[in-house]
Amino acid sequence: LLEGKRVLFGVHPEKLHIPTHLWSPLIQHMGATLFITIPIDGIDILLADASCPEEVLASARSFNAIIVSFEWIVQSVICGYLLDPNAHERFSYNAVARD
Predict the structure, then answer these.
(1) What is the pTM assigned to this prediction?
(2) Do 73 and 34 meet the contact criterion of CB atoms below 8 Å apart?
(3) Using CA atoms, how far apart are residues 13 and 65, in angstroms rounded to an integer?
């Protein structure tokens, strides 16, 4: 699913519902290279939430990276292909949870 993609977590580890020690191998198993900071040649995907620092968002945007929530990757795994990041409001990194 993520073959050749460069991915960055833009969420503080304590804020993840599933710990990074579970997310990291999953993302890498899907073929992505996972970064802890944005490399000089950029990233393709920023997995983030509303707590993501503005400077990280701005840097990701400068590389035309897809900026999405973890819900996007979860649903993409379920479907077996990368979903359109605009297909659902919950795929937005700053989506607000509703009761």
Answers:
(1) 0.88
(2) no
(3) 21
Q: Is 80 within 8 Å of 1 (Cβ atoms)? A: yes
Could you tell me if 56 and 48 are in contact, meaning their C-beta atoms sit under 8 angstroms apart? yes
The vertex-53 CA angle with 90 and 34, nearest 5°, equals 75
Query: Mean of the per-residue pLDDT values for the chain?
Result: 89
Other CB atoms within 10 Å distance of the CB of residue 1 = 15
CATH 3.40.50.10190 fits 6-91, yes or no: yes
Per-residue pLDDT of 62-99, as tens digits, reads: 999 999 998 999 999 999 999 999 999 999 998 876 65
Of the candidates 57, 69, 80, 30, the one whose C-alpha atom is nearest the C-alpha of residue 6 is 30
Q: Reduce the DSSP state of residue 58 to 3 states and report it.
A: helix
Backbone φ, ψ for residue 8 (5° rounding): -130, 135
